[in-house]
Description:
By secondary structure, this protein is of the alpha/beta class. It has helices spanning 38-47, 81-91, 109-117, 147-156, 162-168, 188-201, and strands at 11-16, 52-57, 70-73, 96-101, 125-129, 136-143, 171-174. It contains six helices and seven strands. The chain has a seven-stranded mixed β-sheet with strand order 3-2-1-4-6-5-7, with helices on both faces. Helix 1 (38-47) links the parallel strand 1 (11-16) and strand 2 (52-57).
Amino acid sequence: MTLKDNSIPLLNGLVLAGGRSKRMGSNKDLINWHGKEQRFFAADLLKTFCQHVFISCRQDQLAHVDPAYQALTDTFLDMGPFGGILSALRSDREKAWLVVACDLPLLDEDALRFLIANRKPGKVATTYESPFDGLPEPLITIWEPKSYAVALHALGEGATCPRKVLINADTHIVKPRNPDALLNVNTPDDAATAREIMQRTKGNPPSKNNRDGYAF
């Protein structure tokens, strides 16, 4: 990290769960991969690292969010994930936002810890390089406060893709140590792949005690 510790914006967490899951055929955020709905499992992961954690959702989903979790409804409508990210950045402009999608069933604490350990607060964002196409992965990214202005400018130019924002911004890109953790499950075939990986790695979970030299 390049800024003094007391000048580094604190992290809020955001789970993107407002999609309509058309390719999956059922709600991805409601899939039970780890003993609870994935949106809640992801929120629990973020709580280890973030001051406050929110579940990004549509207004019509709000009544179905467990009151033990904080919901954040979109104020930028009909923009998919970009709308959820913008809505979060608008809601608290002094915090950085650690954003994860609800369709990352293999995401774990180690992947989040490694991203945070490699965070560069002076950049617009810190993100992973996708192991599937080599491009920045916007749906597991730390969006710094300054990214709000950058994202708004992109929106004004007609862009509604968060990946394009990262490509064109001053983004710090990190190679993942465990590429499987970034597997997006968007289709039933993707889900089958995720289950295969889970079965193969069962009994060998990542250590929750390995802090990679990063103090929280």
